[in-house]
Amino acid sequence: MWNFRLLISIFGVCVLSVMTNAQSKVPPKVLCTESMMRVEIDLAGENAGKRFYLDHLQHYPDENCKPKIEGAMAVFELSLDDIFQCGVTRMVNKISGKRVYYHKIIEESADPAAPKEIIIVKCTGQAKTLNKRNVLPAGFQEPEDLEITNSFVKDAPEPILGVGVRQAGRLVTGELNVSPGTPLQMEIFLDNASAPVYGILATYMQVTDTKSQEETIIFNGCSVDPYL
């Protein structure tokens, strides 16, 4: 049984947000520092009996990627210094210096017939940058009357990366049990809102089922080993 960890980055943290597919529910509490994202999920009430784990890392053996139980809360503490430890995605806006870190948490009900829910937790902050003013040439004079005929400003959406595995053309979610020799297709994709705006350049990808066994399948943008 393989669990897949995506080791890709697209390129003061205190702003935070949470997105869920059930807007009426009380979202988890997210606390952000420069080095850590802490997610607190209340296990009482409607969350009683539910399980929470990081997307694609349900049985990954690293204890840092598993929730810790503190009283009536499940707590995730995700490193922002080592984003590869638990597959945190980091995005950097090269123009503004804005950094966004996010991960997906799976909410699984005790009822096997109930669908799983996805919670996206995110930390956003500005990098400390020094702006340099361009030096104007000698004798430059700005016109006193400047006519602006048209102006158009629009912000592109923040991209959200996804990774998945297809078996026999079907996208597999959750755990995946395969026999040796079964072909699998890895996919990296963007959300629907940002897909028409951005492109993806995958420089490195690694899959692992234990800390001692791992396979690199993309290195410097090239396929190294397409077979697991």
UniProtKB/TrEMBL annotation:
<protein>
    <submittedName>
        <fullName>Putative secreted protein</fullName>
    </submittedName>
</protein>
<feature type="domain" description="ZP">
    <location>
        <begin position="31"/>
        <end position="228"/>
    </location>
</feature>
<dbReference type="InterPro" id="IPR001507">
    <property type="entry name" value="ZP_dom"/>
</dbReference>
<keyword id="KW-0732">Signal</keyword>
<feature type="signal peptide">
    <location>
        <begin position="1"/>
        <end position="22"/>
    </location>
</feature>
